[in-house]
Amino acid sequence: MTLKAGWYGDDFTGATDTLAVAARAGWRTLLFLDVPTPAQLALAGELDALGVAGSARTMSPQQMREALPRIGEFFRRMRVPVLLYKCCSTFDSSAQTGSLGTAISVLGGYVDDDTVYVVGGQPDIGRFCCFSNLFAAVGAGGEICRLDRHATMKAHPVTPMNEADLRRHLKRQGVKSVLPVHYPCYELPERELDDRVDALLSDLRSKEQGALLFDVARADDLAVIGRQLARQSERGSLLTVGPSAVVQALAVHWNRTQPALRDSLPPVATIKTSFDGRLDVGQGRVARHADIGAVFVFVGSMSPVTAVQVRHAGSYEHVPIDGVELIESPSYANLQHGVITALLDAGRHVLAYVTASPVASRSVPPGDLARATAGFIKRVVDQQAAGAAPLRRLGVAGGDTSSLAARTLDIWALSFAGVLAPGVTLCRAHSDDSRLHGLELMLKGGQMGSPDIFERLLA
């Protein structure tokens, strides 16, 4: 297997966005829920790119130092030329939680290049990096705000973003030196830009733990960045940090420079899955079913963006869930479980949503809500799988909830089924349990998607 790239997602929803980017570029690709076994790799067949979905975004530095070496070793064994540490597109992290500096320190030991390459934006989801400062849209198509003035991100409950300059942000997390490549440089002739980048790299390589930070102000910038990453990867494997724009950049560059591949691509490449788990590339968008059956959505996100989406979900029966009661009262969980499964058995679409954060209202450890909701989701899915009408489509909103929920299910990988909105991917489950194999999942971060995203899930 000769891979073009590999990625580790520091949270689950972001990892699925990278899966979508790679698949739509025409690459044969799969996202594993853990380092795959030899048997799982054999089932996957020949791939162009693969990812591993992780949860480092919620880890302490010590936890990251314990978890990431096996990831680095796996990708080194797979000989990936470009390894992406896929962080959130808003780079929300801190020295104490989800430290990008720790990720760079650990994974940098598994690639040839001593410099890490940071890509700062992703225009298709409203993320822009200009003169090293990160800007983000408020919701889909909303106002563009500098990150430290973004209402949601500056008030993030775990990693509030009070610094928009990514150079300063990375240095706070232990990256010793960060040199920028600002977007006006992308207008330079190729040779002149190459010389400028090489000079910056020469400077960085004389220092400990250096990073080269690329602006992304426009979609057209991606081809230039992709060329630079590809050029450096010819000299040895390298580590990149950023959103899915890293894979976008590589794909744009390689597809432009390989006409045979470019001309053979369908408008949208969709991974189809046969029952034995092998992959082939076909055409189409989101799988259309004459009857997808009852759809279950669970919303664990407290984001204002997701709150708007819940209000627009008129085709669902809404079931409010009290977060504190879900954690503390088994009888309450049993009652709500019974309500939801009865509605699903009657063929009704159900949207359950947490009404208040127990973290904010009570002294509850932050991970308790995500663990409680993940267990609740698994219970509903398992109940339906044991009955006459297993779920065929499931949606989960909230980064931590999505990550834990997917891991509680008996699934070992996800392939691409379609895109519901920029940054929101519909995936197809690979499982050794025939009742779960082929289950379609939407795993959505709180900030992602249009107001009608839950209605789109029913299409």
Helix content: 25-40%
Percent strand equals: 15-25%
Class derived from helix and strand content: alpha/beta
- The CATH architecture of the largest domain is 3-Layer(aba) Sandwich
How do the strands line up in the largest sheet? 9-10-5-11-4-1-3-2-18-19-20-17-14-16-15
- The CATH class of the largest domain: Alpha Beta
Q: What is the rounded distance between the termini?
A: 36 Å
Rg over CA atoms, rounded to whole Å, is 21 Å
- List low-pLDDT spans: 260-290
User: What is the third-level CATH name, the topology of the largest domain?
Assistant: Rossmann fold
CATH superfamily of the largest domain: Putative sugar-binding, N-terminal domain
Number of domains: 2
Average pLDDT number: 89
Shape: globular
E-strand count: 20
- Tally of contiguous helical segments: 16
Largest sheet composition: 15 strands, mixed
Short descriptors:
single chain; 459 residues; alpha/beta; Rossmann fold; Molybdenum Cofactor Biosythetic Enzyme, Chain A; 2 domains; three-stranded antiparallel sheet; 16 helices; 20 strands; 36% helix; 4-carb_acid_sugar_kinase_N_sf; nucleotide-binding; NBD_C; NBD_C_sf; carbohydrate metabolism
SSE order and pairing:
Blueprint: E1 5-9, H1 12-24, E2 29-32, H2 38-44, E3 49-53, H3 61-77, E4 82-86, H4 100-107, E5 116-119, E6 127-130, E7 133-137, E8 144-146, H5 166-172, E9 177-181, H6 190-204, E10 210-214, H7 221-233, E11 238-242, H8 245-257, H9 259-264, E12 269-273, E13 279-283, E14 296-299, H10 304-311, E15 317-321, H11 323-328, H12 330-345, E16 350-354, H13 358-361, H14 366-385, E17 393-397, H15 399-408, E18 413-421, E19 424-430, E20 440-444, H16 453-456
Parallel strand pairs: 1-3, 1-4, 2-3, 4-11, 5-10, 5-11, 9-10, 14-16, 14-17, 15-16, 17-20
Antiparallel strand pairs: 2-18, 6-7, 7-8, 12-13, 18-19, 19-20
InterPro entries: 4-carb_acid_sugar_kinase_N, 4-carb_acid_sugar_kinase_N_sf, NBD_C, NBD_C_sf
Keywords: ATP-binding, Carbohydrate metabolism, Kinase, Nucleotide-binding, Transferase
Domain Four-carbon acid sugar kinase nucleotide binding: 297-454
